[in-house]
Design goal:
GO molecular function: DNA binding; transposase activity
Largest sheet: 9 strands, mixed
Order of helices and strands: HHHHHHHEHEEEEHEHEEEHEEHHHHHHH
Shape: globular
Radius of gyration: 29 Å
CATH architecture of the largest domain: Alpha-Beta Complex
Protein name: Transposase InsG for insertion sequence element IS4
CATH superfamily of the largest domain: Transposase Inhibitor Protein From Tn5, Chain A, domain 1
CATH class of the largest domain: Alpha Beta
GO biological process, one term: DNA transposition
Strand content: 15-25%
Organism: Azotobacter chroococcum NCIMB 8003
Helix content: 40-55%
Number of helices: 18
CATH topology of the largest domain: Transposase Inhibitor Protein From Tn5, Chain A, domain 1
Distance between the termini: 124 Å
Pfam family, one: DDE_Tnp_1
Length: 469
């Protein structure tokens, strides 16, 4: 019997390694590549400076899907997500240890997920061919708050809201996002501690704002320095915002009964904070009476021939689309579980970028579905129903057969008309109110309690024991 030398075992090791790689390429990650381009993920990893130095059952390509899966499958733990999606490489054991998932997330970090989000949003927006208004893409900027687990690291890093009794129960993250309104695709995001200024966070979004766009701001972002900087940072970057109550302005000339070019004075503090801000800022002020209330809208679109006044005022109602997007993320996608999972600030940031990336992934598939529905915008499709259908692909047996993914996606896109929502009713309005908690006991409000106290004081005194004798 011949003696086997070292060279034989080295060749055998190479053959086994090649076999391992071939088995890995036919894995579920190839099927998931139909949803997230592996080359784009690789480029993001190179930009973030992370790489898998040795063979692991959970390489970084698997961990990016783990972070996305944590957002899409909110009821599952991170370990369950890895095993359910079957994104681990083949090994001696069918499952990986929970500690391997934790270590994999730590190797991945938050910067890599942020780079994947940035590269995917650029590609998806470029291929989306968004509809425009007067040649301008419609965007919106608004803030949102996320709640984190109450750990010492999170509380020291993010802080929390306070009242007369001290800090509240959970540390919170303040986030500002920019969203394209017809597709609900996120353009960019910035976040920091709870006590950070939303103006400063919004300033970071100027870099990613596309040219020839119109950004709708909430009234809380009224800052002449921010608006001037936003407009001057590119070509045709317009803004639209309600006029602050009591804001000083001087009418330069009128374009109509409720349409005028006005001059807004800037404060010395604002000019010091925003270099290049002039002493006065010219803008267009439009007014319209809606249900007996006068609405005043301020905008940088001063050309009356190109931008009709009636359409501008009505256009501001589209700002509510970003509020609907936040509701889709928090209530539908995260199943109304408002507290994030991670215990450290680094993993909190990774998880948040995973939430934004997962939301964009769903929204881009809805955009692809809307192409099969002429005249329908992606925002007019049911996010909940489409999410269930898309997650059925990720949670089904098709992941074990990657070749089935394109077929199932084609079938999903072909059935897009089934997910179109009915037209929104313009007269539908729900005023803000506090709903009482259901109880078998009769409720007593302050008015009823005061009436009861007055009745008790005016009631005749009961007879004493002496009078009874």
């Amino acid at each position: 019997m011949p003696v086997l030398g070292i060279g034989f075992f080295m060749r055998l090791s190479r053959v086994l390694a090649i076999t391992h790689d071939i088995a890995a390429t036919s894995h579920a990650l190839d099927g998931l590549g139909e949803l997230l381009d592996p080359n784009l993920v690789k480029s993001a990893f190179e930009t973030a400076g992370v790489a898998t130095l040795r063979k692991r059952r959970l390489p970084l390509e698997s961990m990016i899907w783990c972070v996305i899966g944590m957002a899409l499958f909110r009821r599952m733990s991170a370990w369950d997500v890895v095993n359910q999606m079957d994104i681990m490489l083949p090994g001696q054991r069918p499952l990986v240890a929970p500690s391997a998932v934790v270590q994999g997330r730590q190797r991945l970090g938050s910067q890599a997920v942020r780079e994947v989000f940035a590269l995917t949003q650029q590609r998806w927006h470029a291929s989306a061919n968004h509809p425009t208004w007067m040649g301008l893409r419609l965007l919106s900027v608004d803030g949102v708050v996320w709640r984190t687990p109450d750990t010492q690291e999170n509380r020291e890093h993010y802080g929390s809201s306070t009242n007369q009794h001290g800090d509240t129960g959970f540390p919170q993250v303040r986030m500002v996002c920019q969203m394209e309104l017809t597709s609900h695709l996120l353009v960019s995001s910035s976040f920091a501690g709870y006590h950070s200024n939303e103006m400063k966070l919004a300033e970071q979004l100027v870099v990613t704002t596309p040219d020839h766009s119109l950004t709708l701001f909430d009234r809380g972002f009224y800052s002449l320095g921010l608006l001037h900087h936003w407009q001057q940072a590119g070509t045709q970057r317009h803004w639209l915002i309600p006029l602050r109550k009591g804001a000083r302005h001087e009418v330069i000339h009128r374009l109509g009964r409720q349409d005028a070019i006005v001059s807004l004075p800037t404060s010395p503090q604002a000019r010091k904070q925003w270099p290049g801000l002039p002493e006065t800022l010219q803008a267009r002020l439009l007014s319209k009476t809606v249900k007996g209330k006068v609405c005043q809208i301020l905008t940088s679109m001063t050309d009356p021939l190109r931008f009709p006044p009636d359409e501008i005022v009505d256009l501001y109602s589209q700002r509510w689309e970003i509020e609907l997007g936040y509701r889709e993320m928090k209530q539908s996608m995260l199943d109304s579980r408002y507290t994030l999972r991670s215990k450290t600030p680094e993993m909190i940031e990774q998880e948040l970028w995973g939430v934004l990336l997962g939301y964009n992934l769903l929204r881009y598939q809805m955009l692809e579905m809307s192409r099969h529905c002429p005249g329908i915008y992606p925002c007019e499709m049911s996010f909940t129903a489409c999410t269930w259908a898309i997650l059925g692909l990720l949670n089904g047996l098709s992941l074990r057969h990657p070749g089935n993914i394109p077929k199932y996606l084609a079938e999903l896109h072909a059935s897009a008309m089934h997910y179109v929502l009915p037209h929104r009713r313009e007269d539908r309005c729900y005023p803000r109110a506090v709903r009482p908690k259901p109880s078998k006991y009769q409720s007593r409000n302050k008015k009823a309690m005061s009436e009861l106290a007055v009745a008790w004081l005016l009631a005749p005194a009961p007879p004493s024991s002496k009078s009874m004798d």
